[in-house]
Write a structure and sequence with these properties.
Number of strands: 17
Number of helices: 1
Distance between the termini: 46 Å
Helix content: under 10%
Largest sheet: 5 strands, antiparallel
Radius of gyration: 18 Å
Structural class: mainly beta
Strand content: 35-45%
Length: 206
C-alpha cells in the first residue's frame, strides 16, 4: 500500500507464507480489498476479503470444492461479482456483500448467475447498472439492478470480439475499452501496442 500521490513508504498489506494472494478489487470507500487465494490444497482458489481498518485480519468469504476468484465490488459496495467453475466451466455470479456482520464482513444470502455461456473478469460500470465480462475473446455485457430488495439482471449480449485475450479494462461509463494485442508480424521487437476500442456500439447494428 502507498499513497496515490507517491508520498510516504510502502506498507505490506498481506503476507501468507506458501500462499499466492491475487488482489482483484478495492471497495470504492477504501475499506475492503477483495483477493483470491490461489493454489490452496483441496479447494484450489478461494475468495477472501481484507479489511483495511481495525486489526486488518483477512476473512474468508467463499470456499468450496470448486474454484472461486476474480471478485469485484459493485460501486456501492453492496454486491460482489465473482467467477466460479461449479457448473464445470467458469461463470459469473453475484452475491450480496455484508460489510458489518456480527462476525465481520461476509457474503449474504442469495446467489445470481449473471453469465449464461461462460464468463470471467467481471467489471462493474461506475453507476452499478451493468456488468461487463469476457469468455475467451467475446466481450459481453449484462444490465443489472441491485438497488431493490433483490438482484435483477437482463440477458447477456456480446459487444464485440477482442483481437486477443491478453487482459483488458473498461472505462467507468462502459464506452471505451483498453486491451493489449500481440505486435504485428515482423515487429516482434516492438512493445505490445495498446488498443482502445471506440464506437463499438456500431458493430451491434450490423
Amino acid at each position: 500500500e502507498k499513497s496515490a500521490n507517491g508520498a510516504g513508504e510502502e506498507k505490506e498489506l498481506l503476507k501468507k507464507p506458501g500462499e499466492v494472494s491475487l488482489p482483484t478489487s478495492w471497495s470504492r470507500d477504501g475499506r475492503f480489498l477483495l483477493y483470491t487465494a490461489a493454489n490452496v490444497p483441496k479447494t484450489g482458489s478461494d475468495l477472501w476479503v481484507l479489511p483495511l481498518e481495525g486489526d486488518r485480519k483477512p476473512l474468508l468469504l467463499l470456499r468450496t470444492e470448486f474454484n472461486e476468484g476474480n471478485g469485484s465490488f459493485s460501486p456501492d459496495g453492496c454486491w460482489v461479482a465473482y467467477v466460479s467453475n461449479e457448473t464445470g466451466r467458469n461463470e459469473i455470479y453475484v452475491r450480496p456483500f455484508v460489510a458489518s456482520g456480527s462476525s465481520g464482513p461476509s457474503l449474504g444470502e442469495g446467489k445470481w448467475q449473471v453469465s449464461k455461456d461462460g464468463g470471467t473478469n467481471p467489471k462493474w460500470r461506475a453507476d452499478g447498472k451493468e456488468i461487463i465480462f469476457n469468455f475467451g475473446l467475446a466481450i459481453t455485457s449484462v444490465d443489472v439492478n441491485g438497488s431493490g430488495a433483490g438482484f435483477q439482471m437482463g440477458t447477456p449480449k456480446q459487444l464485440f470480439t477482442a483481437p486477443a485475450n491478453n487482459g483488458w479494462d473498461v472505462t467507468g461509463d462502459g464506452k471505451r475499452f483498453m486491451m493489449m494485442v500481440p505486435p504485428n508480424q515482423g515487429m516482434q521487437t516492438a512493445p505490445a501496442p495498446i488498443t482502445v476500442v471506440l464506437n463499438w456500439q456500431a458493430d451491434l447494428k450490423k
